[in-house]
């Protein structure tokens, strides 16, 4: 057994020390942040993941400036210490749980930053995500999400920019089981072509936050979905939940969203919102589907690397470029800003997608 600083807090979920998270090697624990200026400029995002049974942690920071997405990747060996919220130059500080968190990126290869997130309301708890491929659990996790305000700065190659007044965004925390680390090469007998469809719209609106997500099968049947409205300052038991339907079109030659409309049936929320994309953020910049810096991969005791992605030059049909967040202006029954995230791998009938990565 190994005792760590987490064992001095009443956090245990099993009879074992905190260092052991059940028995599934794919267990993970992750922080996520994104933010943007009120005029749609200055998009940034960060991710911080802990993989107890792989004994690895990683962190990523990425932002867009001048049509280029600048990325800083970091990985370290965990040493079974889950409460050390630092990976190389990137650190997380929980100032006030469920309300204020701070992210610090020490200057590394020309990139740096520091920003504090302050919540607009209590976080929402999304329905538990459980999905299997045949008999094998593909994912089983819980996620909480909340919108908020940011204060801070970002620096690239000696040019520091303070975040604009009114910078908004989203942060989430998820934990459980999903594919992490090295890919499992053992095939599943009779498994169909790989397919995964995900849409998520955390929106910052006047007076509150609107959240919608859907996971669906290739025929468009949702296996996990929910809409929620969190009025500013509301407590967890005041979050209103219900249903919504998202209708989207794709940018020709891609699997990236072009426009979308959201019809909502939630008490207190607007009934219809329209999403107009302003900028595209590649999620591989913070590790998602990245071929080298994918979440949970082992890179030795400590390793960091900078990566610059010229957004206009990326191949939209490449597997690692499918997962995007589109920064959107929100119109319709209420005005605001937000993000439309989408990942479509494999066939998806409602959008006319039939192959693994074929484009619209």
Describe, in plain words, how this protein is organized in 3D.
There is one protein chain. The chain is globular and about 55 Å long. It is built from no helices and 23 strands. Strands 1, 2, 3, 4, 5, 6, 7, 8, 9, 10, 11, 12, 13 and 21 form a 14-stranded antiparallel β-sheet that branches. The chain has one domain. It is mainly β and 360 residues long. A hairpin with a 3-residue loop joins strand 22 and strand 23.
Q: Could you give the order of the helices and strands? A: EEEEEEEEEEEEEEEEEEEEEEE
- SS elements, strand count: 23
| Count of discrete alpha- or pi-helical segments spanning 4 or more residues | 0
Low-confidence stretches: none
Largest sheet: 14 strands, antiparallel
Spatial separation of the terminal alpha carbons: 53 Å
Helix content: under 10%
How many domain regions? 1
Percentage of β-strand residues: over 45%
What structural category do the secondary elements indicate? mainly beta
Q: Label the overall shape.
A: globular
The mean pLDDT is 96
- Rg (C-alpha, Å): 20 Å
Output the keywords.
360 residues, 14-stranded antiparallel β-sheet, 54% strand
């Amino acid at each position: 057994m190994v005792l760590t600083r987490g064992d001095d807090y009443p956090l245990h979920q099993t009879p074992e020390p905190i260092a052991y998270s059940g028995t599934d090697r794919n267990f993970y624990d992750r922080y996520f942040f994104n933010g943007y200026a009120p005029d749609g400029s200055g998009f940034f995002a960060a991710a911080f993941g802990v993989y107890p049974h792989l004994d690895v942690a990683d962190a990523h920071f990425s932002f867009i400036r001048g049509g280029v997405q600048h990325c800083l990747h970091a990985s370290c060996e965990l040493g079974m210490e889950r409460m050390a919220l630092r990976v190389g130059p990137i650190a997380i500080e929980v100032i006030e749980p469920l309300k204020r968190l701070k992210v610090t990126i020490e200057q590394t290869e020309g990139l740096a930053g520091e920003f504090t997130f302050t919540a607009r309301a209590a976080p929402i708890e999304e329905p538990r995500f459980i999905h299997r491929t045949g008999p094998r659990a593909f994912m089983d996790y819980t996620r909480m999400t909340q919108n908020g305000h940011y204060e801070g700065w970002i620096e690239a190659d000696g040019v520091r920019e303070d975040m604009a007044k009114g910078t908004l965004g989203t942060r989430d925390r998820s934990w459980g089981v999903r594919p992490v680390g090295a890919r499992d090469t053992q095939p599943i007998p009779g498994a169909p072509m790989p397919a995964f469809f995900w849409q998520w719209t955390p929106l910052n609106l006047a007076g509150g936050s609107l959240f919608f997500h859907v996971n669906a099968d290739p025929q468009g049947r949702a296996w996990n979905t929910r809409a929620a409205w969190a009025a500013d300052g509301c407590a967890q038991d005041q979050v209103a939940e219900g249903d919504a339907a998202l209708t989207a079109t794709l940018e020709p030659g891609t699997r990236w969203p072009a426009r979308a409309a959201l019809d909502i049936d939630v008490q207190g929320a607007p009934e219809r919102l329209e999403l107009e994309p302003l900028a595209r953020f590649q999620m591989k910049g913070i590790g998602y589907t990245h071929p080298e810096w994918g979440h949970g991969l082992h890179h030795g005791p400590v390793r960091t690397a900078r990566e610059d992605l010229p957004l206009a030059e990326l191949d939209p049909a490449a597997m690692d470029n499918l997962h995007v967040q589109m920064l959107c202006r929100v119109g319709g029954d209420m005005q605001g800003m937000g993000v439309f995230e989408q990942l479509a791998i494999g066939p998806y009938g409602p959008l006319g997608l039939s192959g693994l990565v074929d484009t619209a």
